[in-house]
Amino acid sequence: MSSAVDATGNPIPTSAVLTASAKHIGLRCMPENVAFLKCKKNDPNPEKCLEKGRDVTRCVLGLLKDLHQKCQKEMDDYVGCMYYYTNEFDLCRKEQEAFEKVCPLK
Amino acid sequence: MTEAMIRKKPGMASVKDMPLLQDGPPPGGFPPVRYARRISNTGPSAMAIFLAVSGAFAWGMYQVGQGNKIRRALKEEKYAARRAILPILQAEEDERFVSEWKKYLDYEADVMKDVPGWKVGENVYNSGRWMPPATGELRPDVW
What we know:
The structure holds two protein chains of two kinds.
Chain A: H1 15-20, H2 22-28, H3 30-42, H4 50-70, H5 72-84, H6 93-102
Helix pairs in contact in A: 3-4, 4-5, 5-6
Chain B: H1 3-6, H2 46-111
């Protein structure tokens, strides 16, 4: 369960993977996220915001795959550390710095 | 042997004339014992003590503030990460909910198909806003 990828090599969006790449998601998928949240605020009905939700999912999963391809080892280490310490940023600073050196936030 | 045989002096008439053997002070007496108070007036003044204590207090409160700043930054990092991943989690849950809701509406139509005048699904509240279904259990398969 502590592996970051499934059988076909795509990163699984578990809590460890998502928190590890949270800063990247917050930066690069911000337009989709904001659009989805605005739609939700307008009308909380799930059936009305399905399309924007699909945009969000597509952006985030594509971003995870991209990150995993660019800096596989550092991301695996960081995700493993996050899994071990249950998503505590302060306990994984070393792996975080290594990850952000190879896959910078820009 | 009795004391008289050990401590006798020659020519003693009775036991009452034995030489004395008792515990006593050394010759010249004991040295004098000081019992007078001696509390010195040296050391820091009251103002000096007050300034030192309030200086330590102020430095301690400054360190508390610095520590709070660091802790707030850590909490902010955690909350920012949660804000960033909230939309994808909500989107995934929405997809799951919509498919489950469709199955539920089909089941309701199947059950109520012989009841005259029953509009399948969505006969909930009249305010116009969407409310989540209040079945008492959010996800029975999970709980």
